Model the fold of this input.
Amino acid sequence: MTGYTVHTGANDKFRDGWDNIFSKPKSKTASKKKAATKNKAASKKKAAAKKTKKK
Done:
């Protein structure tokens, strides 16, 4: 036995939920990349400072 199938469409809240599930987290990856570049820059500055102190 089958009945009528009602297609009302998705509402905004429903779509946002699926977008959150299947979208890539942008802020986490961007912040990790920023932190990695900051760490590299800081280590380069430390290495340069050590070289100048030795002279």
Remarks:
- The first helix runs from residue 12 to 22.
- The helical segments are 12-22, 26-54.
- DSSP finds two helices and no strands in the chain.
- The radius of gyration is 26 Å.
